[in-house]
Structures are given as structure tokens and as C-alpha cells.
Amino acid sequence: MNTNSNQESHPINASVYYNVFFLLIGLTVLTLLQPVIINLDLGSTLIVQLGIAFTKAFFIVAYYMHIKSSSPLFKKLIYTTVVLWFVLYGLMAIDTYYRYTPNDLFNN
Amino acid sequence: MSNASSTEPEIVYDKQGNPHEVIDFNNDYEGAKLGFWLFIFTEIMIFGAMFLVFGFYLFQFSPDFIAASEGLNRVLGGTNTFILLLSALSMGLSLVKLRNGKIDESKKFIWITIILATIFLTIKYFEWSHEIHIGIYPGSPTLDALSDGTKLFFGLYFTMTGLHGLHIIIGIGVMFWVLALINSGKITSTNFVVLENTALYWDLVHLVWVFVFPLFYLIY
Q1: pLDDT single digits (tens) B136-179
Q2: Do B218 and A6 touch (CB under 8 A)?
């Protein structure tokens, strides 16, 4: 990768944008249809809805934000950030589960 | 393509007409993008913290959150989801057109993005107006009389969609600035990093909505 070049030079094609767009439309339709098709409890709804949202986010970051075709610097930056982000959210989820609930560890 | 021109040495001439090769100049494409990604991470920290608060209280006050979510207008929220999706496409296409040297088409797609962003804000205005009209806004007597979970839900709803809306307004302003830069020849088919970063910003705005929409409108 020529990091000193003026601008990135990978070939740029509109068809990628259209393909990802139609994929995102499909996933958005799924998002909207889920409550109509199946009535889930809160936990399952969150898993389905956030699953679709993370899939959409992956395609947006990979293709619309060009991480797929970026230099290794950007790829590593994003991977590191995503890992740290999940660690932070994981810790928060554990804390949420054990606080002010029937599972509370701090209040007997 | 930009490759051919960017790898050639850039030559400047002094007053005597002697050529000098430019070996360091303030046109660092990777640096400009890296700097913008760092900015995006700060944005993710802002919205990420709000999502954490939302997640925490969703777990503490699940029945209230589910009941409050049912009161939101899913048709308007869903329409806005599709509008943002379209605007992300038109923003991306404006970058494709610019890089392929089609300046006028690039500007056309930026205008389409501005129009779609304005429609998004208009729909949001009607949504908020309806809620304020029925007495639901932070600190209102109607909301104060409701349960703690409902107050938290609508507090977060107005804060997060409000901050998101603010980002849309700023995005529209940036797009007008980009149009002015294209018109003055400061953004070209070989020097497009400002438009690319603007497109990154717009994708971030889209990305935030991808999570805001299901969490607020569809958890019922």
C-alpha cells in the first residue's frame, strides 16, 4: 500500500454501492416484519433485532465506509476498536445483570 | 485514475525558474482519513455511552420500556430508516461520480442527499410535534405523572434522536460546504478526501440510526 500517495487508487465501482443498498433494504424489511411475523419476548426480540442491526452495520462499515478496500492500518484500527467496544459492553452487561435485580450480588 | 498523477513527483519553481521536487507537502490522504476515523471513534463513544444507559435501564424497567415503545410511530420511524438508507447510497454515489471525473453528477447526488436529509428532519419534526402535543416531552407534567421507566424511556428517546437530528443538521451544513469547495475547484477527482470524509460522517449518522430505530421503535 502506497501510504504516501495523494489519494487512494483502488478501482471504484458504483455496482458495489447498489448491491449493498439492496442487501440493506432487504435487512430493513426483515427488521420491520419481525414483530408482524413472530411475536417474541423481549430477550428474543433484542437478539433478532440487534442481530440484523449488527449485520447491517458490518456491511455499512465494510463497503460504504471502505474498510474492505482500506490499508491494513485502518483494518487493524477498526478491529481493535470493535474488540475493545465489545469488552466494555460485556462488562457493562454483567454489571447490569447483577445489580438492582433478583440476582443482585451487592444487596442481601 | 488518480494513481498516475499521484505517483509522479510534484515540481515547484522558484523565482529564478529553477525546478524543485516537492518531498513534503500538506496533502496527506491517509493522515486526513486517519484523523477523521479518530473523530468517528469519539462520536461512537458519545452514542455508545447513551446506548449503554439505554441497555441498563431497559433491563431495569423492561415493562415500562416495552409499553412506551408501543406508543411511538413505527410508520414514520420506518420511513425515516428507508430515507437514511437512500441518502447513504446517494452520498456514496456522489463520491464514485467525483472520482470518475463526473463533477456535475457528483454535485447532483450531494443535492439529493441534502433533500433526503431535509425530508428526514421534516418527518422527525412531525413526530416530535405529535408527542409534544400530547404532553410528552422532558419535564412535562404529563410525563412526570408517569412511571420512572416511562420517564427514562422518553428522556433517552428525546436525547438520542435529538442528538442524532443535530448530526443530520450539521451534515447538511457540511454538504453545502463541500458543494462550495467543489465549485471553487478545491475538491477534484484526484483530491477528494474532504468528500470521502463527509461520506464517512454520513455513514456514521446512518449507522447510529440502524441501532436507534429497532431499540426504540421495535422492542414492544
Answers
A1: 999 899 999 999 999 999 999 999 999 999 999 999 999 999 99
A2: no
Position A36 scores a pLDDT of: 84
- Specify the CATH superfamily of domain B26-217: Cytochrome c oxidase, subunit III, four-helix bundle (1.20.120.80)
Q: Which residues of B touch A73 (CB under 8 A)?
A: 30, 34
Contact B219 A81 (CB under 8 A): no
Sorted by where each begins, the domain ranges of chain A are 13-68, 70-108
Q: Nearest residue of B to residue A9 by CA position?
A: B3
Look at residue B22 and give its three-state secondary structure: strand
What is the enclosing helix (H) or strand (E) of B11? strand B10-13
Greatest alpha-carbon span in chain B: 80
DSSP, res B10: E
Is the separation of the CB atoms in B88 and B202 below 8 Å? yes
Asked if B183 reaches chain A (Cβ–Cβ under 8 Å), the answer is: no
CA distance B85 to B148: 34
Q: In the prediction, which pLDDT does A12 show?
A: 67
The predicted-structure confidence for B56-82, as pLDDT tens digits, reads as follows: 899 889 999 999 999 899 999 999 999
Q: Which of A4-8, B109-113, B136-140, B192-196 has the lowest mean pLDDT?
A: A4-8
Domain assignments of chain B as residue spans, ordered by start? 26-217
Which three three-digit cell numbers place residue B175? 454538504
Best residue in B10, B22, B34, B37 for a mutation probing chain A (most A CBs within 10 Å): B37
Determine contact: B177 vs chain A, CB below 8 A: no
Nearest CB among A21, A61, A78 relative to B89 is that of: A21
